[in-house]
Amino acid sequence: MQHEVFTCRWKYCSNQYVTPELLYSHLTADHVGRKSTGNLCLSCQWENCDVTVEKRDHITSHLRVHVPLKPHHCRYCEKSFKRPQDMKKHEKTHTEEERQVEHPLTPPQKSMLDDTQSTYSSTSNLTDRLTPHHAPISPPQSTYSEGIPIKYIQ
Length: 154
Ligand SMILES: [Zn+2]
Ligand SMILES: [Zn+2]
Ligand SMILES: [Zn+2]
Description:
GO terms for molecular function: zinc ion binding. This protein has 154 residues and is mostly helical. It has helices at residues 20-32, 56-62, 84-102, 112-118, 123-130, and strands at residues 6-7, 16-17, 72-73, 80-81. It starts with 5 loop residues before the first strand and ends in a 24-residue tail after the last helix.
């Protein structure tokens, strides 16, 4: 159920990736390039950004501001988090789930039946409760009471 798309906003580029990791590796490989391949680019051309750095390391770490990389992965599922404390908090939900399987929580029983049984000893109270208080039945209201048939426009 992952429909999120990460779009590259580099100048003249609009490539889309399903994960921030893929977008990030695209940026470093295709846009930053390498000295050895002769295409090293040390100025960020991301939309509304004009950062220029001196070293490749600097631009690769700078690109993280544009890509929502989440380096902290949950040990139990596919989720990942930006901050380690968020991941710890999330991982706790897994460990707590395991504990709850052994002792499933039952909701407190509060039914109408219990209520009736508790008042059963008091007879007068019971008859009073069981006596239906019928509301007077009002005659069905005719929509034609005014003599004008209602037309339904469809
Ligand atoms: Zn791109
Ligand atoms: Zn930038
Ligand atoms: Zn998880």
